[in-house]
Design goal:
Layout (H helix, E strand, L loop, with lengths): L1 H8 L4 H9 L11 H7 L6 E5 L5 H8 L3 E6 L2 H11 L4 E5 L12 E7 L5 H13 L1 E12 L21 H5 L7 E6 L2 E5 L5 E13 L3
Length: 212
C-alpha cells in the first residue's frame, strides 16, 4: 500500500504536470469535455469554477457562453498556455494545489471537476470543499473515468486503478436533504492509440443544491 501511495504522489505535483505540458505543444484535444457540454448547455450563465483546468478548453467554452470563470490548475505551464488561448474572455486563471486549497463557501453557480483523480481520502475531502463552494440553486458537476475503463486495453494502468471512482462514490459525500443528485455512467466512443474506436464510460455526478 505504501509503495502505491509513493508512486501516486508524483502525479499530484506541479513538477509532474509542468513537465507533461511542457513536453508537447498540446496535451489534450482542445475541445471541451463532452459531459460538461451536455449538462451545462441548457443552464443560465453565472459564476463558474473549473477545477483542474489544464489547457483551458472547458473554461474557454464556459466563458464563450457568458459564464464568468475561475479556472484553477496545479501547472503554471498549462495555465499560461490556456490564458494565451483565451484572450480577453472573462476567466481568472489561478495556480492552485487542490490538495490544500479552499475555494470558499457559496461562491459559484457551477463547480465543475472533470477527470480529477486523487486517492480516495483526498478526493472525498476535495469534493466536500467543492460542494461547499456551490451557491443555493447551483450545480456541482463531477466527471471521471469509470472503474470499468480499467478493462479497456489501452487504458489499463494497474498502478492507478484505485484512483478511479463511480458517480455513486461521489454522491455519498453529499447530504440528501440539501442536494438533488443524479449519478450515471454514460458510454462514449474514443480513438485509441492505434486509431481504433473503443467504448469507454464516464462517471457523471450532477448535483443541484436546493435553494434555501
Amino acid at each position: 500500500m505504501g509503495h502505491d501511495e509513493h508512486d501516486h504522489a508524483i502525479l499530484f505535483t506541479p513538477e509532474f504536470w509542468d513537465e507533461r505540458y511542457g513536453s508537447a505543444d498540446r496535451v489534450w484535444s482542445g475541445n471541451p469535455n463532452p459531459q460538461l457540454v451536455s449538462v451545462v448547455s441548457p443552464l443560465t450563465a453565472g459564476d463558474a469554477l473549473d477545477v483542474g483546468a489544464g489547457e483551458g478548453a472547458d473554461a474557454i467554452w464556459l466563458a464563450s457562453r457568458g459564464w464568468t470563470v475561475t479556472a484553477v490548475d496545479i501547472s503554471r505551464v498549462a495555465l499560461e498556455r490556456a490564458a494565451a488561448l483565451a484572450g480577453d474572455l472573462p476567466i481568472s486563471w489561478q495556480l492552485t494545489d487542490v490538495l490544500s486549497w479552499e475555494p470558499g463557501v457559496d461562491r459559484y453557480d457551477l463547480v465543475s471537476a472533470q477527470f480529477m483523480h486523487l486517492p480516495s481520502d483526498e478526493l472525498r475531502d476535495l469534493h466536500r470543499r467543492l460542494a461547499a463552494a456551490v451557491r443555493p440553486g447551483g450545480m456541482l458537476l463531477v466527471v471521471g473515468h469509470h472503474p470499468s475503463d480499467h478493462e479497456v486495453p489501452h487504458l489499463q494502468r494497474p498502478d492507478r486503478a484505485d484512483l478511479l471512482f463511480t458517480a455513486e462514490d461521489v454522491g455519498v459525500t453529499l447530504d440528501p436533504a440539501l442536494w438533488d443528485v443524479t449519478a450515471s455512467s454514460p458510454s462514449r466512443t474514443i480513438l485509441d492509440d492505434e486509431g481504433q474506436t473503443v467504448e469507454i464510460r464516464d462517471a457523471v455526478l450532477v448535483a443541484v443544491r436546493r435553494a434555501q
